[in-house]
Amino acid sequence: MQGREALKTLEQQLAAYAYEKVKERLNEKKELRDKYGIWCVGTGQLVRNCGLAQALAFLESKGAKNDAFKWLLCDLNDTPGLPNREGSLLDRVTTNYDVADYVFATQRIQRVLVYFKRFAVSVLGADPTTREEGEGDSEE
Fold first, then answer.
1. Residues 128 and 117 sit within 8 Å (Cβ to Cβ)
2. Dist CA 101 CA 19 (whole Å)
3. Computed from CA positions of residues 124, 129, 130, 135, in that sequence, does the dihedral angle turn out positive or negative?
């Protein structure tokens, strides 16, 4: 069985990882599960717009008060194939990674977030058009 694991493509590994993590949330409270699903859908865009470090900092700040954000941050932290597995992903990208590692980590996180988004929609029933209250532009 170990040999078969080595034969999986990177995309297969990332898809399997995201599927397992999203599936773990099926038994959680609906409110937290829904918030997790919304942010699985939206975090890829956050990374593209703000950069990996800012997106992770946002998830960490929200995770202090809400488990859904903490779960997603932990799930991203353990993404297969990231360099230097010591410490949190936010610590690594802000203090330990050189430019090449940062770019690599950003690309890897964006790739795995595609699968988190797909499985949040198909497994958790997240609506990809739903925006969390207070998210986005306001007319204040």
1. yes
2. 25
3. positive
* 136: exposed, middle or buried (Cβ count in 10 Å: 0-12, 13-18, 19+): exposed
Q: Which residue has the tokens 């330990």?
A: 96
Would you state the structure tokens that stand for residue 33, as one six-digit string?
């599960």
Contact call for residues 131 and 48 (beta carbons, < 8 A): no
- For the segment 76-124, what is each residue's pLDDT rounded down to a tens digit? 999 998 887 788 899 899 998 999 999 999 999 999 999 999 999 998 8
Distance CA(97)–CA(44), nearest Å, equals 20
pTM attached to this predicted model: 0.84
DSSP of 30-90: HHHHHHHHHHHHHHHHHHHHH-HHHHHHHHHHHHTT-HHHHHHHHHHHT-TT-S--SS-HH
Rounded to 10 deg, the angle between the 99-122 and 67-77 helix axes is 130
